[in-house]
User: What shape does this take?
Amino acid sequence: MNALMRLRERYSVTTQPLRTERRVETALLVLLFLFIVQLVWGFTQLSQQFYPEAIEPAPDSLQLVASPDIETVTPAQSNDIRSRPLLWLSRRPVGEVVEVVKPEKKEDAADLDKMKLVGVFGAGESAGMIVRVEGKPQRLRLGGDLAGWTLESVAEKEVVLKKGARRKTLSLERAVAPSANAKSSN
Assistant: This one.
């Protein structure tokens, strides 16, 4: 009881500077008491929580069902499916379905980018071209094949190569001769 009396005397002083200090201390003690009460109440609530028991799944829910074999769809069936609007009642095509043309492959264009026309030779059926592919010169006669491209025609300064339905033209570039000034400056 003695400690309780001292505590009471400490906070019942009415002198001015100490009085406001005592009020701040009192407010802090009340807040500390409320915090401790809240902690005790929270831990008691956690200890009394009910957790349901785990239920194992039924054995048949773990069985895999055999899936039917997936059939491949032909391009004609694919066009037929795409031509029918899904959300229309009649599900009939509006108009004619246009076949999608495959775009030119990047590697085909890359094959031609690696080729540089160096020269043409001959005339008529014995005509041909000289092409540099990755730094190596190669000769190709009319109708010959190089990297999937066929030499279709030879003109004076250009050749036409064909691959399927595509045609590409390679033009002969004029070579620049080194000047005499460049040799004398070295």
Remarks:
- Strands lie at 115-121, 128-133, 136-141, 145-146, 149-154, 158-163, 166-171.
- The two ends are 111 Å apart (CA to CA).
